[in-house]
Amino acid sequence: MEKYSRSFQSNVNNQIGKQFEELILAGCQYYRQKQLAEINRIPEHFRVVKTNRDGSFSGRFTGLAQPDFSGTLQGGKSIVFEAKATTNDHIKQSVISKEQKKKLNYHYINGALTGVCIRIKNIYAFIPWSVWCDMKKRYGRLYMTESEAKEFAVKTPGFIDFLNYQNEAITYETY
């Protein structure tokens, strides 16, 4: 019974992740149509090893994980961010791999707008990279709760408006 419970939860989490990504992609499309930004999903480094007769295939990852999205904002500034969703009431800093952290740090140091677009239960937020990296000092632990994420909440008018903070004190100068 436990096996089926884990399998069901895995399917639920997978669906939530797909829906979350679709909402981010809708935001990217909105910014593109408004000529505010050109942001794209970075594909995984992947190679097909075997193709089966039924159309399924076996494959393997060929490179280390990259951040999920990157692009250019109106005015020329780069944007690079990772996307993470959870059904828990908190999100751990460790959901970002060492390689993703390395890449995000590099972009941050070079002046890109960097962060982590998250969904914690029903809160959608864009956490600036400096805040994400400073969780231990800021919150006394290596995770952020749903209520703490509210400070960085973004609007969701049919898409995740990750460049438009509800909290004006932390709005990035993107428009």
Task: Draw up the topology in text.
Layout: H1 2-33, E1 37-41, E2 46-51, E3 57-61, E4 69-73, E5 78-86, E6 90-92, H2 98-109, E7 113-120, E8 123-128, H3 129-133, H4 135-139, E9 143-145, H5 146-149
Parallel strand pairs: 5-7
Antiparallel strand pairs: 1-4, 2-3, 4-5, 6-9, 7-8
Characterise this structure.
The protein is α+β, with helices and mostly antiparallel strands and 175 residues long. The chain has one domain (2-170): Trna Endonuclease, Chain: A, domain 1. 33% of the residues lie in helices and 29% in strands. It contains five helices and nine strands. It has helices at residues 2-33, 98-109, 129-133, 135-139, 146-149; strands at residues 37-41, 46-51, 57-61, 69-73, 78-86, 90-92, 113-120, 123-128, 143-145. A hairpin with a 4-residue loop joins strand 4 (69-73) and strand 5. It is an enzyme of class 3 (hydrolase).
Q: What would CATH call the class?
A: Alpha Beta
Please count the helical segments: 5
Number of spatially distinct domains: 1
Low-confidence stretches: 166-175
Q: Report how far the terminal alpha carbons are from each other.
A: 52 Å
For this structure, the CATH topology is Trna Endonuclease, Chain: A, domain 1
Summarize the structure.
The protein has helices at 2-33, 98-109, 129-133, 135-139, 146-149; strands spanning 37-41, 46-51, 57-61, 69-73, 78-86, 90-92, 113-120, 123-128, 143-145. The chain has 5 helices and 9 strands; from the N terminus they run αββββββαββααβα. The relative contact order is 0.15.
